Amino acid sequence: MTGTTFAAVDLGASSGRVMAARVGPDRLDLHEVHRFPNRPVRVGGTLHWDVLALHGGILEGLRAAGRDAGRLAGVGIDSWGVDTGRLDADGVLLGNPVHYRDARHETAVPAVHAVVPPDELYRTTGLQHLPFNTIFQLAAARGTAQLEAARTLLLIPDLLGYWLTGAVGAELTNASTTGLLDATSRQWAWELVDELGLPRGLFPPLRGPGERIGELTAEVLAETGLAGPVPVTAVASHDTASAVVGVPASTDRFAYISCGTWSLVGVELDEPVLTEQSRRAGFTNELGVDGTVRYLHNVMGLWLLQESQRTWASSGLTADLPDLLAAAAQVPVFTALVDADDPRFLPPGDMPARIAQVCAETGQVPPQSVPATVRCILDSLALAYRRTVRRAAELSGREVEVVHLVGGGARNALLCQLTADACGVPVLAGPVEAAALGNALVQARAAGVLAGGLAELRSLLCATQEVRTYRPTPGSGPGWDAAEARLGGSRA
Ligand code: ADP
Ligand code: LRH
After folding, report:
1. CB 303 within 8 Å of CB 349
2. What is the mean pLDDT of residues 112-118?
3. Are 220 and 166 contacting, i.e. CB atoms less than 8 angstroms apart?
4. Whose CA is closest to atom 26 on ligand 1?
5. Do residues 297 and 265 make contact, with C-beta atoms less than 8 angstroms apart?
6. What topology is assigned to 4-237 in CATH?
7. Which of 156, 209, 355, 448 is the most buried (most CB within 10 A)?
């Protein structure tokens, strides 16, 4: 059977990958042609993304995809949200984009809230308060020479798409992570932009997932050895939005956990939920494809484990993941629990020490070993997933009978089983590369290779992708009820 090959570029906080996706009406195969680390760099006291290295990784990946497929029918890029590059009047990037984990962003929160109170912000933008939302990043940069010189603001996939095509724009699903998009009209929130004293000209025209951005420039064709023309499509450029497209759901009564560096936990809706209750519960209304709303909450995610591994490796302790998980499986459940969403876990640094400190503060004996710390992280994540899935269902009125867990975390069998036990419903784990699959599906539909809505795209996923089912362990429910009550007491 034949198929058409698209390059899906998916940039996560821990690594970037270029996938060659072969797509046809009955076919969807993904082949990883290049993976490269995404390492933030601290310089001059500021944590940056190495965006030129990411561009270099994309070029290398496109070259490999071309070698693999012969001819590429298109390219699409998705990445993490909120962060931006700024172009000057000549269209040149002004400095490296600052990482959302840099501490400077949150310094601007009080100033923004003094102009627009949090409840008003939520009614307009529907975004969970995170101290690094673009709105706060821009406020923190006010008065800097860089922002004065900036003429165009580009989210990361839009910046990389600009380097591939020369065309500027702001893709909608990712624009919905900025805190500057109106969740109801789905346009830039101009009143908010004016109130914050930001120049309207910074914000490029919006484009929807599936719209054509342009074609690879002659320079990119020469660098990659690809034969032109190669169209570049705006996919759901927020990685979480692509991952939600990539959920192999066969019912609309599902919740999802996009489980990578972050765990994005929620449901898919047709309309935003902009109530005060929803704001207080920390739920976001990001946009998805085909007019959907991703009603979700950011759980701190496998960052807790990644950053612990980094700490252990730097002190010479074993940080090999399969070994750590096997050892953690031997530690009894609920030995120590933390609120995974504690904001103190957000910045880079010694994670095991922070976890130990939070345990001590909440009257628990801190984990006494590396496996016990891993177990504390996994139990705490599963508990956060349970709380969030249940709250999302309550606040949105959407029934949930199954949880789809996609992303790198789907490889973590212990976490998947704990999630099924904690949530009390089956967990369907996989695909690991849901974001790249969602990226490829949106491109294929835009190119006319596939037709239909999300249900049709997902039925292709159901027919082609492997999924592993984890059922709740009989009798495990009461333990999780008690754990929730125990943690509830220690939550602020
Ligand atoms: P991101 O897109 O945010 O960079 P990924 O979706 O690639 O994240 O997920 C990365 C995470 O997946 C890792 O931090 C790790 O915890 C988990 N993971 C990857 N491979 C495995 C594995 N073989 N076993 C268990 N967990 C894994
Ligand atoms: C996940 C993600 C998440 C954002 C965060 C900054 O990669 O895009 O949806 O909140 O990164």
Report:
1. no
2. 98
3. no
4. 412
5. yes
6. Nucleotidyltransferase; domain 5 (3.30.420)
7. 209
